[in-house]
Design a protein that fits this description.
- With 256 residues, the chain is an alpha/beta fold.
- The strands form three sheets. Strands 10-9-8-7-11-12-15 form a seven-stranded mixed β-sheet, sandwiched between helices.
- Helix 4 links the parallel strand 11 and strand 12.
- The longest helix has 14 residues.
- It is globular.
């Protein structure tokens, strides 16, 4: 896909938790085509310790409002600076980057989308596109506690939402692999994004259950264009660049 270097305007910055913000951006021009699972490299201005762009998953694309949503965890100097943006500010973005999730081929498919922590970001957009296509989608979201579950209301607009929290404050207690829906067999395929231990556990379950499954990796990225080799992942096909060959991979390619 063609890549664009765009100056986008901040519509709003919504704080979802003490460290998470939802950044909504727009453009004077129609936003380019963006696939679920792709990401954006965002330039961070006025941060003396941030020299490289920050890779951020595409959370949602609102075509009616011509908005791009980015869900940001403000955990470093660069992302904290992005969380300080205000309405009307300009953000320079390189997009869209990477390869997206596997789209359903039939309306008979039922895709289970699993997300953990800020890894829920890309599955909201993917879920909305699955529903738009006419296939069935369900979400299984995990977090340490209820306050760390992000965008629940948005997910509920798209499809059924199942929740786990490690402390039992909402939904089933434990990890996503502890939720009864995972072993229900009511879905045909899994797509996921989140912490690596979570995804490895789901991948092990999927392999044992012979369920097709793909994972969106969150390796450290620098350039986002496959040049710096910072994000290389060892696979059955050799070393692959997550930013260029992924970030979405079939779990059978991963050496998990």
């Amino acid at each position: 896909m063609k890549k664009y270097l765009l100056d986008l305007t901040v519509v709003s910055v919504e704080r979802l938790s003490p460290i998470h913000v939802l950044l909504k951006l727009t453009s004077d021009e129609t936003l380019p085509d963006i696939l679920p699972g792709q990401f954006v490299e965002v330039r961070v201005d006025d941060s003396p310790t941030t020299f490289l762009r920050r890779p951020i998953s595409v959370n949602f694309v609102d075509r009616d409002k011509n908005e791009l949503w980015l869900l940001i965890a403000a955990v470093g100097d660069g992302t904290r600076k992005l969380a300080e943006l205000k309405s009307g500010d300009t953000v320079n973005c390189l997009l869209p980057l990477g390869n997206g999730f596997t789209f359903p081929k039939s309306k008979d498919e039922h895709i289970l989308l699993i997300g953990g922590g800020v890894g829920v970001a890309p599955i909201l957009y993917f879920g909305s596109k699955i529903r738009e296509f006419g296939a069935k989608v369900s979400f299984l979201l995990g977090a340490k506690t209820s306050s760390a579950l992000l965008e629940l209301d948005e997910f509920k607009k798209v499809g059924p939402v199942y929740v786990t929290t490690e402390d039992g404050s909402l939904g089933a207690r434990g990890f996503v692999t502890n939720h009864p829906f995972l072993s229900s067999g009511e879905y045909t395929r899994i797509s996921m994004c989140g912490p690596t231990p979570m995804m490895k556990a789901v991948a092990a379950f999927a392999k044992k259950s012979s369920v097709p499954c793909e994972a969106s990796l969150e390796n450290m990225m620098a350039c986002g264009l496959g040049a710096c080799l910072c994000c290389v992942e060892k696979t059955t096909e050799g070393n692959l660049r997550v930013c260029q060959d992924g970030p979405v991979f079939d779990i059978n390619k991963l050496l998990w």
